[in-house]
Structures are given as structure tokens and as C-alpha cells.
């Protein structure tokens, strides 16, 4: 994967790390960052659309350069925006968050520092949030006369429940890494940023040993069933279960188990 003007990319084995790299502005999501994220996530998606069982990427880590993960949308850029331009800006980044959710491989947000506003929203679009002990999370939009525009009003209640989400959205109060962990926003905390990146990559290495087809299918199912009534969610799950039975990975996984061997998944 190429580097982009505002992003660094680092592929180690099948794990791709994307680093938002505008440390002087605490990695704020300018239109250029959003465009680069759009192209980079698009390139990953394209690399994974082959049906030949090749999975050049098995997991993605998103992190930030310097002391912030992402300190929000670019406040400077928003000063002269018209309401219609703001709508287009919000919609464009929302599409990026949906593209992350639609990737067939897991994405871990490795939150190394401030994840505020659009930064918290970018993290919440990922499959899992891991945090360094110095990370903090919040939706401070109301302190600027703004509201979340990249999914915060929708995804934050899904992560932490209505009561805490509303408190955070109405007050702009920040959560420490530990509070975010206790609230269910963060899956794991690491002492240092190096440990954080190792932890994110180790989890994705573990994922890479499983059936790629099954991981893609379960990611899709979890995404599709969020917020649905149980009965409707269960129907989608049964369809996914059926689909697993059409894959070569299922044949290999169950065969290898019974033969007491390690599976060699075809990836289809
Ligand atoms: N946008 C632009 N520049 C920023 C941003 C930002 N969000 N955050 C920090 N910076 C810049 C600062 O202006 C400063 O630049 P300079 O050195 O040129 O003065 C540099 O980064 C360093 O920042 P600080 O000096 O403020 O660093 P501190 O360590 O003192 O403070 C904080 C760190 C607490 C993170 C502080 O920078 C801060 O509060 N930042 C803003 C956080 C925030 O409010 N984020 C929410 C933005 S709104 C949003 O995300 C809405 C999303 C949806 C919008 C869709 C609608 C179109």
C-alpha cells in the first residue's frame, strides 16, 4: 500500500497499520485526511475483493502519530464552511466509517492519545478499540456549538448505553482510558504505546490463524444485527450459518479438527 500525504502505511505480514500523520494539528481530520482515508480504505477493500482465496490483508490497525490519536475534525477548516458544505463534509467522513465497517477483515483502533470528537467517532467505527493508558475519549462538540457529525450520536450509545452516552454528549466530558474500559468502549488497555501497537497486532495475528471466510462472515453478521430486535437478528444469523456451510474453509476446518490436524484454510 502506498503512503498518502497525511497517512503512513506499514504492512507487516498480513497486518496493515495506518497512522494518521498530522501531529502538529493533533491529527485533526482535515478534508485531505478524510480523502486519504477514503482512498486508503478503498485500496484495502479492492485488494480483498478477489474470489481466489488470497487475503493479502488479514487485519488493519488505525493509530495516530505523536501524542494524539485524532483530536477531532479540523476546527480551523470548519470556520468558513457553509451549512451545505458541512453536510457534505459530515456525509463524506460517515462514508469512510461505513467503508471501515464493511471491510471483510477486522480493524483495531489503537488509541495512543486524545480521541476526541471525530477521533472518537473514527475509533468507534473500528471493530475493537485498544487504548494506551494515556488515551482519552470524548465528544466535545457542544463546547464548540457543534454536534457530532461522523457517527458519535449513533455509535456512542451502542457502545456505552444511553445514560453515559447522553451525559458525555451533553457535557463534552472526557473519559480516561480506564473509565472508557470500564464503560465498555475500550476492549483492552496497555501501559505504553509500543505495547498498545504490539497488542493490536498480536490480536490480529490470532485472527489471521482462523478461517478468513468465517471471520468476514461473522464481522458482517455482527454489523448487520446491531440494534435489531432479537428475532430479526437471529434470522440474519441463521442465514450466515447457512452461508458458512457453502465455504471450503468450513470443510477444511471441520475435517482438520476430526483428523486432529491444524487446518489450512483455503480462504473461500
Ligand atoms: N482541529 C484543528 N487543529 C487542532 C485540533 C482540531 N480539532 N485540535 C488541536 N489542534 C491544533 C491546535 O490548534 C494546536 O495548533 P497550534 O500549535 O498551531 O496552535 C495544535 O493542534 C496543538 O494543540 P494544543 O496546543 O491545543 O494541544 P494541548 O495539548 O494543549 O491540548 C487538546 C490538546 C485538549 C486535544 C486540544 O487541542 C483540544 O481541545 N483540541 C480540540 C478537540 C476538539 O474539540 N475536538 C472536536 C472537534 S469537532 C468534531 O470533531 C466534530 C466532528 C464532526 C464534524 C462534522 C461537521 C462538519
UniProtKB/TrEMBL annotation:
Q: GO biological process: any one?
A: fatty acid beta-oxidation
**Signal peptide extent:** none
Question: Under the GO molecular function aspect, what terms does this record hold?
Answer: enoyl-CoA hydratase activity
Name of protein: enoyl-CoA hydratase
CDD domains per the UniProt record, alphabetical: crotonase-like
Is Translocase given among the entry's keywords? no
Which InterPro entries does the record match to this protein?
A: ClpP/crotonase-like_dom_sf, Enoyl-CoA_hyd/isom_CS, Enoyl-CoA_hydra/iso, Enoyl-CoA_hydra_C
- Entry EC no(s): 4.2.1.17
The reactions it catalyses are: a 4-saturated-(3S)-3-hydroxyacyl-CoA = a (3E)-enoyl-CoA + H2O; a (3S)-3-hydroxyacyl-CoA = a (2E)-enoyl-CoA + H2O
Alphabetical UniProt keywords = Lyase
Q: Which family does it belong to?
A: Belongs to the enoyl-CoA hydratase/isomerase family.
Matching Pfam families: ECH_1
